Amino acid sequence: MADSGGLAAAVASGDQVTALTALRDRLAADLEMCESPRDVAALAGRLQSVLAEIAASSTSEEGSFLDDLAKRRRDRQSASASS
């Protein structure tokens, strides 16, 4: 199995995306070394779900950024309309 020091540190950081990324890397490394078809199927399924979680987290962060940008734009427009 791959070294878990990076995974443990990533989880300890408290950042979900960092932890998921480290888990993704660990699962991919374990998958490459795996010889059991049953274990390959289980690892591949978990890797797929971790990738989906990373994508969902990235989308929600982008949404937050875009929401913040839209709010700042509305605030500017309101401020200039009041002046």
Question: What is the compact description of this entry?
Answer:
This protein is mainly alpha-helical and 83 residues long. The chain is built from 3 helices and no strands.
What does this structure look like?
- With 83 residues, this protein is mainly alpha-helical.
- The chain has one domain.
- The chain has three helices and no strands.
- The N and C termini lie far apart (64 Å).
- The mean pLDDT is 86.
Strand content: under 5%
What is the gyration radius calculated from CA atoms? 20 Å
Poorly predicted ranges (pLDDT <50, ≥5 residues)? Answer: none
**Principal-axes shape call:** elongated
Distance between the termini: 64 Å
Biggest β-sheet, characterized?
none
Number of domains: 1
Derived structural class = mainly alpha
- Average pLDDT works out at 86
Percent in helix = over 70%
SSE layout:
Layout: H1 5-12, H2 16-33, H3 37-82
Keywords, please?
single chain; 83 residues; mainly alpha; 3 helices; elongated
